[in-house]
Amino acid sequence: MLSNHFENGAETARFAWSRLSHSDDGELDGVGLLSTTTSNRNGVESLDYEVIENYGYREEQAQRGNLFVIYNAGVKWFFALLIGIGTGLAAVFINISVENFAGWKFALIFNIIHKSYLAGCLIYILINLALVFSSVYIITQFAPAAAGSGIPEIKGYLNGVDIHGILLFRTLIGKIFGSIGSVGGGLALGKEGPLVHTGACIASLLGQGGSTKYHLSSRWLQGFKSDRDRRDLVTCGCAAGVAAAFRAPVGGVLFALEEVTSWWRSQLMWRVFFTSAVVAVVVRVAMGWCKSGNCGHFGSGGFIIWDISDGQEDYSFEELLPMALIGVIGGLLGALFNQLTIYVTRWRRNYLHKKGNRVKIYEACLISVLTSVISFGLPLLRNCSPCPVSDPGSEIECPRAPGVDGNYVNFYCSKDNEYNDLATIFFNTQDDAIRNLFSAKTIHEFSAQSLLTFLVMFYTLAVVTFGTAVPAGQFVPGIVIGSTYGRLVGIFTVNHYKKLNIEEGTYALLGAASFLGGSMRMTVSLCVIMVEITNNLKFLPLIMLVLLISKAVGDVFNEGLYEEQARLRGIPLLESKPKYEMRKMTAREVCGNQKVLSLPRVVKVADVVSILQSNKHNGFPVIDHTRNGEPLVIGLMLRSHLLVLLQSRIDFQHSPLPSHSTGGSRAIRPNYSEFAKPVSSKGISIDDIYLSSDDLEMYIDLAPFLNPSPYVVPEDMSLTKVYNLFRQLGLRHIFVVPRASRVIGVITRKDLLIEEETEDSTTTELQSTSRSET
Questions:
Q1: The whole model's pTM is what?
Q2: What is the pLDDT of residue 301?
């Protein structure tokens, strides 16, 4: 495809404007075709969110009555229920598996180190290495699209970009089992981002009825085959993933609205909220069942919730300054994290990962060994501290028994009443480390030296680990990093103000929020998620404060983590706001001077095959002629629809003249649903279709199959308006045409209000204020 990429600034908006050679007579020199379709060298293709209102669609809609409308709405709610149940069960399975692997691992290691710390270190390294190897092997050999968090790819899908492989059944399997291995192996990454991708895969697979490749499909589930319906289902899946990861149903809805979707409506809001509520119920039931000891090491923990409701009761005006400082630090460290991951990802892509899957496996295993050595070895270098005098009413014990999660871990200590503060956060799961950092009534548990050491090492490991060929989320590592420097600021605040009511854990919470805001640049959804997972509404104003500051500081340096990663992956996202330079450009300028290839209404089969083989365009204007011989654009024909017609051969005709029928005269036609591209494949290819010499000499009348009402813009419309139209409507093509010579009517707001007739309630009319031609 000959495309002219429009890139500016940070290259967030990328257009491809189709410009092909025109027919010999050159009658439509002023018509251009504006498209969001990008080149296929990265396996990226635009989605068709526009409704193709051709004859088949209108015929199908005419046959549907009120009963079908009710049935269709009921099926959508049923699918929302299934998505919630499926995502909740997947999250339960992942958490149970990770917690049991971690529990068995730490129980075994603590038993071994009583005899030999060296043997314990070697066993610890080997267990983590085996888990990480299983994860990277699954990704490289079975599901390469399951690497990373998956959020940039899902964000691109909901933005209108289809990336092959991201919603396949094997991607779902790779995401689930790969997350278990990578998180259970102790790498500096989380399972929360992959859970969003998992929910999206479950939603997509349910929408297409399962996986036909692995014979796990059901025909009665195949109710939503259009890209628009799949988009709604995937949106529900994204919200369900966040709700399952953080036990934050409201945060899941807001995450889908703020971070991943480009298009929203009130009906979708209700279904997304219902899906998140179902996930919360499933997770709650599973946790209640596991508390009775049915899930091994998985008990009340596992699912992220760090209850700090018994923490700091109030805060003073004097504390706002250090809290604002936490927001500034979060913005700086978050922006630095994004920039460092960009450099590391580029180096991996340009040098390391070009050498094949074997190098990816070696890399992940090397990082696993390095992480294990640091997390086990650094606490050995730290001197133990005596246990503080415990409060009679406190539930916190010092020291904790070996292998049991909690504060004050006794690790490499000479006395029984001592604890190792660095081991309390390092030689632990990330969830337990965060719970320890957030904990209240534990002033002076961690020294500033230990927190600074942990911050530097874990920050470095998180940067290096992000981008390896394993499922990797950044939510929990970001919370770990933020809570560490937040607690560090809390230590200095306590020492400076000398107030007993200041809790270091409160500052750890604010630090976690600030780093996520500085890195991911989320505000509303992140604020609600932090409130839901900590069960403390009192600090909502403070969380809002640090989020606003950290986002403002981070925006000075670069964009959010997911936007930057999407750009590195070649995903052409249309951001919510067009670039300023677009105001000075028109649609005509971007289209260029080359002519657009069009198809006649009745086209020879051989010509269609030649056109499809010679280019990769996905949409073609269809031209007819009036009685006076003037050219007339009658619609848009999609490449995928042409391929369906060639494959079926049903509508081939011998005559080069129009059939002069809307399709009803033919007994057999391809069903409208047959034109939908399968979500789990690239659809039909022209190379897959065999046509005989007799077939090539026949003709096709395209009138019944084209989109008769594509979106059209005048050639002098500003590119800003065109950009907003593309993104808000989820379009793939727009016709750019010369200025119209006449106006046949003007539609106002009241013309769009359908009023029911009092005499005949079964009919409606659309009142028009302008009917005469001017």
A1: 0.85
A2: 46
